[in-house]
Amino acid sequence: MIPVIALVGRPNVGKSTLFNCLTRSRDALVADQPGLTRDRKYGDGRIGDRPYVVVDTGGLSGRGDELDELMARQAELAIQESDVTLFLVDAREGLTAQDELIAAQLRRLGKPVFLVVNKAEGLDEHTAGAEFFALGLGQPHAISAAHGRGIGQLMEKVLAALPPAPEEEAESGEDTGPAPIRIAFAGRPNVGKSTLINRIVGEERVLAYDLPGTTRDTIEVPFERAGKSYLLIDTAGVRRRSRVAGAVEKFSVIKTLKAIEAANVVIAVLDAREGITEQDAGLVGFAVDSGRSLVVAVNKWDGLSEDQKASVRRELDLKLPFINFAKVHFISALRGTGIGELFKSVDKAYESATRKLPTPQLTRILEQAVERNPPPLVRGRRIKLRYAHQGGHNPPVIVIHGNQTEAVPDVYRRYLTNAFRTALNLTGTPVRLEFRTGENPYADRKNELTPRQLKRRKRLMRFVKRK
Questions:
Q1: CATH architecture observed for domain 181-354
Q2: What is the pLDDT of residue 277?
């Protein structure tokens, strides 16, 4: 197995900064504010031929409230599944009572621990770590995660203490299989995204708490079901722009939107008890505009009266009419009701979005649609649509060739989109049409002679010279 390295420590000691260094990424949200990381965040790293997995965890503050206890539970799970733990302390702040408490917990768990003294730039290595010998965790290792100093020497010692690396499948030439289907769970704060992911994977993989804004970063969770691989992406809740305050929340929103754009399928989680809001419509619209496949999960459906359920269904029709291609599921993430059907819709949406569409079939569908309902006249001439072919997938792009295609009205575009969707049985994915008009190579040369006219003129000139 590839070794797993867990990062633990108090809030704001630089765990996420070190995570980004070890994974050579900017995946973890970093700011000069305690308590940004709350869930377990995984990343892949490599030094030479040695791969490893790094787990970032939330800061252990010792406040003792419910949220802090949930974060501590996430950190404990990360330590239990790791091969080695890097315990970060702050050289600038020195040894604290909370450091001593965490050290005592690590000793009880009995896992290999490396004591890492971060923010040691400009300080003598021996002086920076001297007082931390009192923690009883061996030699302190002084580093600066922000400046990348001392990390190479630290990782040499960490990897040397681990079992030899296994032979990697990729190096042996074996097929690693298809890439997992990336599923982003998106919605407003506190609609139940984290609870839904925990229910799907069957464990407390991400922190779920009845407080808006609990999830601040995007968390990726590998998952297998019925022989298929998925990557579940928990995202931060997105509020109205006027309510987004502070740089951290703005970065969280940006990472959520990027996660949607990078996903194969988006599960839009809505709150049945609050109804469909403008923010829901905006977020779903962003997913559709990004070309992502879509499944809608209306959460907290249990306990609603029949009148309330009917009201939510009416709101779906009125406020989200542009997602008539997406499957809607009414679920309870807390109780697990209706969740099993979600993946059937995810698989169908992904298959529809990535399917290869033969040109003869697309042209035949186009001809049948035009025969049933011909395009309108433009300046006394009828628009002619000749043939169609696939121009891309995920989402499917259908390119239609003809004359005067720039004049095709929106209502006829929607008619053709529905015709292709119905004939091809495409579910859960937007379909994009591109129209191309056959260009006249002499359209910009009205005052010039065509090759045929030029040939006739040359013949005439030769005849005149002979005379």
A1: 3-Layer(aba) Sandwich (3.40)
A2: 87
Cis omega (within 30 of 0) for bond into 34: no
Report how far residue 124's alpha carbon sits from residue 304's, in angstroms, rounded to the nearest whole number. Answer: 64
Q: Which of 68-82, 290-304, 348-362 has the lowest mean pLDDT?
A: 68-82
Residue intervals of the chain classified under CATH 3.30.300.20 are 355-467
Q: Could you tell me the CA-to-CA distances from 132 to 24, 141, 311 in Å, in that order?
A: 28, 10, 61
Residue 223 near residue 182 (C-beta atoms within 8 A): no
First-to-last alpha carbon distance for the chain, in angstroms, is 94
Return the SS3 of 311: helix
- Mind listing the pLDDT tens digit for each residue in 100-137? 888 888 888 778 899 999 998 888 777 888 889 888 88
Residue pair 330/272 in contact by the 8 Å Cβ criterion = yes
Q: Taking residues 192-211, what's their average pLDDT?
A: 71
Instruction: Name the amino acid, one letter, at 380.
Output: G
Find where tokens 């029709």 sit. 317
Per DSSP, the residues of 211-227 read STT---S-EEEEEEETT
